[in-house]
Amino acid sequence: MKSEYRKAPRRRIDFRLEVIDSMTESQVGEILDISATGLKIRSNRPLGIDALFQWCFLMPDTAQSEIVECGIQVIWANPADAGHYTAGVRFIQIGQDMRERLRHWCNPIPR
Q: Are 64 and 34 in contact (CB under 8 A)?
């Protein structure tokens, strides 16, 4: 049985949260889950493993529309369904304060 190992807790996104390429201003895809170290996205175009991009997206669950600017590296990519692809990316450039806010947002709420 294959077990999954992640260093940072991740949080599933249950609403549409788009990722935009900062250089071309085109939509790359939508976020499926997020952590302080990276994203899982669904895209309508394939993303090459080890590719580097500058992306931006809105910080989830904020009253004001705060934009997260980040440099990413594609770690893995797979075909998903009917012309869609999924990919896992890690942040290689993101402000430390924004990383901490994402870490806080992704941590489970104690019950």
A: no
Residue (of 51, 5, 13) closest to 34 by Cα position: 13
List of domains in the chain: 11-103 (2.40.10.220)
**Are 85 and 79 contacting, i.e. CB atoms less than 8 angstroms apart?**
yes
Higher pLDDT, 44 or 3: 44
What tens digit of pLDDT does each residue of 5-49 get? 557 788 888 888 899 999 999 999 999 999 999 999 999 999 999
Judge whether 28 and 39 are in contact, CB under 8 Å: no
- Tell me which residue of 82, 86, 109 sits closest to 28, measured CA to CA: 86
SS3 95: coil
**DSSP character string of 18-42:** EEEETTT--EEEEEEEEESSEEEEE
